[in-house]
Amino acid sequence: MTDKLIIFDTTLRDGEQSPGASMTQEEKVRIALQLEKLGVNVIEAGFAAASPGDFKAIEAVAKKIQKSTVCSLARAVKNDIEKAGHAIQSAASGRIHTFIATSPIHMENKLRMTPDQVLNRAVEAVKWALEYTDDVEFSAEDAVRSEIPFLVEVFDAVIQAGAKTINVPDTVGYSIPFQWGDRIKQLIDKVPNSKSVIWSTHCHNDLGMAVANSLSAVLNGARQVECTINGLGERAGNASLEEVVMTVKTRQDIFNLQTNINTEFIVPTSRLVSTITGYAVQPNKAIVGANAFAHESGIHQDGVLKHRETYEIMKAEDVGWGANKISLGKLSGRNAFKNRLETLGIDLDSDDLLNAAFEKFKNLADKKSEIFDEDIHALISDEYSADTAEIFKLISLKATAEINKKPTAQITIDRYGEELSEDSVGSGMVDATFKAIEKIVKSDSELLLYSVSNITTGTDAQGEVTVRLAKGGRVVNGQGSDTDIVIASAKAYINAANKILSKLERAHPQV
Ligand SMILES: [Zn+2]
Question: Region labeled Regulatory domain — which residues (predicted)?
């Protein structure tokens, strides 16, 4: 057994399947570059056959990424595998991840195939995939409810066909750690030539055990874990990358394994993913929650001050807390700004975009003395969202709040060069602002989520707002950032309305 644990990140595929978390191509590339910096071994960039947008996004990620392997998911269907193969063609290192369900309930009711047909199809799929890359991963969907003898038969056959990685997923999040570890152990013991492949696990968090199940699999021989940043993912999410990685690192005495993760990029990566998807991180979330390293009780604080290890098992700075160094200030010029973007892996496609972003940076620097990397990411998200779908643009906003008076908002918005103004009262300034905006944009959509978070600390920090709107089954996220949260809220609402009205193509549309 190798002493390396392979980290397979599926934030851009499984994570993207969270409601409303679908991303544009530019957003996927930006996250992929950050994942590469973080040091993940494999980036699952999407599901090429799902939509033309997702195909293009995988292709764009494959072109940019040099160090990590770029992977596309594909059903065990010829067309899916062809699309995946083409999407990863230009990758420095490309993988096809093909899957078929092996549980009786899925085979009978979903696939309507006999076990023999499933077995043959699995082998065929691996052979088709090998025409595009020699790095082929095979997954037995719903392995948790599949029969062990059948799994052994299928895995034996796909290994003989040339699969290099065998993934055992708990697709429905049903397993218990000791049981999951035992299943992995049995499979590795029973499958012939099991030592010639990497065993992988992919666990869902429906019972809150995705990380525990993944680690139990690792203790029983799995050497690849499929996970996502912040545990994002379908339903209750996937195993969280940061928790898996930090457990293995903190408990070397138990695991004795190395990952390739540069842990000081964990918090910045978590921030970027939550900015782009609009999924805020709960404050008490392990590793990346705002309170993960905060000691409230006096006894704890006293202990930590006297001797850190009394209450701390990890160092906050090791996972990137407090690492947000001031990167730029008011006097920084265009070149310094451009260099910083390059270091952050942000590549603006045109001089126009760069100039517009620099303009925004200067405005921000007037309001806020210290500009952090997180501020720059937020500014770029803002710039791109404004650039991609512009029916409406915020021109001016005046909102007032006074005790014992109804809050009011007056807003002026540009629609294709025409200035439109409206006002409204509301239960608060944000509510009044949204009502005034809606009078102009008439998006007629339902507000599903409104969330505010601060990008860095301090009262002059930028507030970042996500507004999630739904209309006719379509769900979009709008983002806005500003040092004033009412203005950030207005920007986010207008951004979401633009997306819903312009039908901006998401890489992987959710309908
Ligand atoms: Zn999954």
Answer: 393-511
CB 242 within 8 A of CB 26: no
How many structural domains comprise the chain? 3
Compute the distance from residue 468 Cα to the ligand 1 centre, in Å.
23
Domain boundaries, position 360: 325-385
CA distance 187 to 148: 7
Task: Check whether residue 403 and residue 357 sit in a common domain.
Answer: no
Distance 148 CA to ligand 1 centre (A): 20
Do 140 and 123 share a structural domain?
yes
Q: How far apart are CA 438 and CA 436, in angstroms?
A: 5
Query: Looking at residue 22, which CATH number applies to its domain?
Result: 3.20.20.70
Mark whether 174 and 83 lie in a shared domain: yes
108 in the same domain as 23? yes
295 lies in a domain? Answer: no
Q: How far is the CA of 108 from the centre of ligand 1 (A)?
A: 20
Among the listed residues 190, 127, 191, the one whose alpha carbon sits nearest the alpha carbon of residue 155: 191
DSSP 33: H
CATH at 422: 3.30.160.270
Distance from Cα 202 to the centre of ligand 1, integer Å? 7
pTM of the model: 0.82
Show pLDDT as tens, one digit a residue, over the chain (511 residues): 459 999 999 999 999 888 777 788 888 998 999 999 999 999 999 999 999 999 999 999 999 999 999 999 999 999 999 999 999 999 999 999 999 999 999 999 999 999 999 999 999 999 999 999 999 999 999 999 999 999 999 999 999 999 999 999 999 999 999 999 999 999 999 999 999 999 999 999 999 999 999 999 999 999 999 999 999 998 999 999 999 999 999 999 999 999 999 999 999 899 889 888 878 888 889 999 888 887 666 666 677 677 777 777 898 889 988 655 566 777 788 888 888 887 776 777 788 888 888 988 888 888 877 787 778 877 887 776 665 557 899 999 999 999 999 999 999 999 988 999 999 999 999 999 999 999 999 999 999 889 887 777 677 778 888 898 888 877 788 888 888 999 999 999 998 898 888 765 555 555 4
Report the separation in Å between the CA atom of 154 and the middle of ligand 1, taken as the mean of its atom positions. 20
37: its two tokens: 């910096």
Q: How far apart are CA 299 and CA 314, in angstroms?
A: 18
Ligand 1 centroid to Cα of residue 153, in Å, is 23
How far is Cα 32 from Cα 38, in angstroms, rounded to an integer?
10
CA gap 421, 405 in Å, rounded: 22
Q: Are 121 and 241 in the same domain?
A: yes
Is residue 469 included in any domain, yes or no? Answer: yes
Whether residue 402 sits in one domain with residue 365 = no
Same domain, 262 and 202: yes
Query: Residue 228 and residue 243: Cα distance in Å, rounded?
Result: 10
Dist. CA 399 → ligand 1 center (Å): 44
